[in-house]
Amino acid sequence: MAQSPARPDRPPVSRPTGVVAPPVSRDPRIDAFRGLALVMILIDHMPGNPWEAVTVRNIGFSDAAEAFFVMSGIAAGIAYSPAVDRWLHGEARLWDGMAPMWRRAWTLYCVQLVLTIVAIGMFSWSAGVFFRGEFREMHNLAAIYENTGAALIGLPIMTYQIGYVNILPSYIVLMIAAPFILMAGLRKPWWTLAAAILLWGFAGANGWNIPNYPGNGVWFLGPLTWQLIFTIGLLIGIRHRQGKRLVPVSRGLFAVTLAFVLFAFAWRHIPDLAAFMNHKMAQLRDLGAPANFTSHNKPMLAAPRLLHILALAYVLSCLPVVTRLCAHPVADPLRLLGRHGLLVFGLGTVLSLAGQILLRVEADVAWLPWLLPVVGVLISYASARLADALAGRKQPQRAIAVAQQMQPPRAA
Asked: Matching InterPro entries, A to Z (predicted)?
């Protein structure tokens, strides 16, 4: 009997050269840098600890959030572009390409709800136990007590966000949009990039963002502007699958981006230079230049932050020693954390909030700010090790189950 085609509504088409194909090997930089970003997020989410001085936000304008979005985009591009590519060439159903990304978005949404509820519970419990009323007012928590009905509406639609639990909503929105970005990126990558840049520019200049409810303000990370670095990550992931780079290695471009990274570091740490540059940006603002070019605003992903993370990513991607270091056994813990990114992110969020509470309650204990971030990282690593061990144990069981299903039935 003839086998039915995978796409009866659309005949297969011939594949051009350079289509998405599995990479030769897994790039160790992806997991290592994603793991490093997660460690830095955990550290930075316990304000006042001395380890903050060694996170990426102290070498320039961007921080671990930008790094997280870039690396997540790259990972999504590598993981999901082949299925979308097969649909574009008539070899699979559209749903086969879209469903995995939307299932991932649903998982992220559930994690966001759980983390928000846990955060409300932790601070509410701490307020009663430690007799600290400010725990009910920190991080936009007051709304759940003062305007409970509206907060309970805003929580499931993600417009009521708790401070330090507000990274995932924009990522969820972008994962929902990811199938369409990948479709465009596989067909017209440079047009897709140009459209993302234009959207970033217009959204930032006009202050386009999703409003909070209840209360005033907007989302901490605006999806219409943050989509740019996520889209760039997706395009890098597509090219990685093809064994290519999105932006080729160039000595001239490397020199320019390295100079910008060093200039950003000097801007951050030389007071006279910072005062001069900030004054010039204020003058540009007074002349009518858009706010996303004349500030360091994080919700709109202002140009200094955007250019810094892109320049830093390009410089690191051009250095062979970086690849060797990420592949070295000493980087095994970071790669492990990166492979279990969602587990580490969720657990790290809870641990960092617990650390905030302890640092306020025990403000006089000098060694506590040194210890808590280290303990949080170690617990995250142990959890990732456990998850890796459980996953490794399940793989042989799945293989045995598949083999048993493929065996012919015994004769009666």
From this structure: UCP028704_OpgC
